[in-house]
Amino acid sequence: MNILTVLLFIPLVTVLSILFVRNDRAIKWMAFGGSSVQLLFSIWLTGHYMSLRSAGETAPMLFQSSVAWFEPLNIYFRTGIDGISLSMILLTALVVVAGVLVSWKIEKQVKEFFFLILLLSTGAYGFFITTDLFALFFFLELAVIPKYLLIGVWGSGKKDYSAMKLALMLMFGSALVFLGITALYFLGGHTWNILEIANLHLPIEVQRVAYVLLFTGFGVFTAMFPFHTWAPDGHSSAPTAASMFLAGISMKLGGYGALRVASWLLPDAAHELSWIFIILASIAIIYGAFATLMQTDLKYMNAYSSVSHCGFVVLGISMLTKAAILGAIMQMVSHGVMTALFFAAIGMIYDRAHTRQAKELGGMLKQTPFIGTAFIIAGLCSLGLPGFSGFVSEMTIFIGSWERIGAGYRIATVLAAASIVVTAVYILRAIGFAIWGTITNKEYLGLKDASWNERLAVVMLVAGIVLIGFAPFLLTRLVGADVDIIFASLVK
Amino acid sequence: MNLETLSLLRFEWVIIGIIFVLLVMKLADADAKVKPMLTAINVILLANFLLGLVPMSDGSLFNNFFRSTSLIVLQKNILNLGVLLISLTAYRYLSNIKNQIEYYILMLTSLLGMFVMISSGHVLMLYLGLEMSTIPVAALVNYNRKQRNSSEAGLKLIFSSAFSTGVLLFGISMLYGAVGSLDFTTIACNLEVNALTLMAFAFILGGFAFKMSVVPFHLWTADVYEGAPVSITSFLSVISKGSVIFVFMSALYSLFGHMEEAWLYIVSILAIITMTVGNLFTLRQQNIKRLLAFSSITQVGFVLVGIAGASAMANSSVIYFVLIYVLSNVAAFGVIGAISDTNGNETLSAYKGLYKSNPYLALILSLSLFSLAGVPPTAGFFGKLFLLTSGMGNALYVVLAFASINLVISLYNYLRVVKTMFMDEAEIELGKVETNFPLNIALIVCATGLIIIGFIPAIYNYISSLSYGI
User: In angstroms, what separates the C-alpha of A355 from chain B's closest C-alpha?
Assistant: First the structure.
């Protein structure tokens, strides 16, 4: 058995065994156990991968395997990972454990909740380990229905509307991706294998069509303007764990796809047409930042700021310089952990105070110092304070973007960098209203601080942010070689 | 009569045998106990299905009027499976009415007609089979004779199918005028593209389009589906439709294979409007049977995209899709039948909060709806994507663009039902819906099939090994 299938095997076994357990407590422990084992395995796999690489493995993907699926259609279940997919796998494993921990208090339909959360994660792992376009698409779409149900059943606010909007828009995105990959299949070499397609030099006409379809399709998943509207509603209506997953991992599926499939496989078209997505990304960054200014609901605030931050990912990928791509990958990891922490903190506040309006809160740091601190750390990381992961990744993107010569690209870079100021405004304002100050509402005096499970989740996520912030070389060493490979085909 | 004849006609003999015994029982006025009789019929149908899994040789009979190949056996066996499952889901309905014997005689006669139609090697035989499969269904649709809408449905079906038959016959007569023969191979070899044959094709297409409820020939569908007993609605939407799809596809590929340029446009346009109109009408349906009726029109639209692929891959993906469609729809109608038998309510609001009161039924229904919508990991995902992939293989980009939009709309339609079941609060307490043993078997078989078919490549590979294109 291939070592990568373990990554699918662990969550699947957890999901199936949850079905046969009746005790809610046992289910939570099983979900926690399963996702922790997965996290430990991912960390071990990373170490193993690094040791193989330093031993001189130069293949673009390691641990490759291939199992026939629908042979007449050349569909195989192919696996293989490089540093980029590994960093995404680590991110997923971390966020899922934290999500499970944060959901400890859930009482409504516990079995179904954890079943869906873990099913979602299975889809994400499958997406990151496969190198077959059809299988990749399968895993991409696998996540749509669980998200719909998580928001619709366990959500709050206008959940029916948000859930339906999210499901339909993501389905639209996947339809575009599907058109793109089938076009690649028939107009390319009748293969779904990413590694083979990367070596085909497809005619530019084919590349153009496939690039636009694929990038836009994946762009919907990463909430690219103008397909971002599912994100604010979806994130804010979702239960905490689902918001963490949606913003932390799901949006990264889009970014990863846009890089790995759209840009890497279609380099000529990427050079020719990436300006479209640079414009859209710049709009998303600016628009997202200003829209966040107007939000009073903390969850909406973080959701819109996610649109802005994921704009950086799209910008980095579309700039097509080595540093920008590296920065985009770092930003995906950084934003994934940071936004998960943010949503976790907001969820904890909401659980206690039953409101997410920044102005109705106040003084949270006094009553619940741990949660307040978590909120502040997430905020500071979001606005790009040095020492946290946000700073290094955004900085790398700006440097990379500046390397691309041309007035339009420079303007986009400057605009993107300027948005940081706006970010600082809304983050500091939210912290000021909700966390600092005096307690205005007497009811908040009795609030309890974070419980052990919440503390554990926060500590794990903060560790991730700080680790990348202080030791970015860990991440660059993991993904650097692979960025070279992707970049090499993009410059030729 | 030798052993070969017997083996080529094996399904037909079994069905004729059942019909014959039932007729004798009816005529002798034998006072059979209902439940043992139903069980016996189901066991024989199961045996019939298992018989179809035994590989046997190809061949033709009666001067090539009747032919049998592995592909034809497979198609018939998909229908066998469907009829068996429908018969299981109808167990409870049948236990509560009087005329079970006639029900089976009519249903199996219709099935026999479909077998004749699928096996036909001659246009007259095809016509005969088509008629034989339709007329008994009209009586079945009218089975709840006391209900007005059931009678209305029966009448509508018989009128519209008589009309479509007339159209089809007109086309056949032109075809005969143009070629001078009605034998499939002769027609396929001698067909030239000219005004007369194009006209013939258009009329024949119209005839088939009625039976498949392709827009704009779909107007009978919703009323008939709504008025008929649930198991018959299921039979109409799955078995009737599936068999006509098989025959239509083989007619296009072998009879009119030379005219591909001509029919490709027509079929593509029909595919686009069928998907779109079906979807738009589904949007606001409040009756679950009507909702599924219109959604089945959409599904036919997707099938047409596959058929327009005109390749061996298209052929196999259509058959694969029909297999999955059979399981999805039978499961959906099985659940609807169980609920309708309990409270007689078929509106969507009766499904509010179904997951709380009957989680098992709600899960099966949502699984089948997900499969119809084409979301993974259900089999419908693979079925639908292979249809679209074969459309892409024939470079039908405009059709594919419409198909993608329709995928989104149809997801909305199915999620609406899912939302009702999972997220809404029940207005009227439904209580526990009783499910009996045969229904449970049928539902579990369908659900298991929907989950695992996509992960057993052997099924698709087998279909693919038999398929042919133009």
Answer: 23
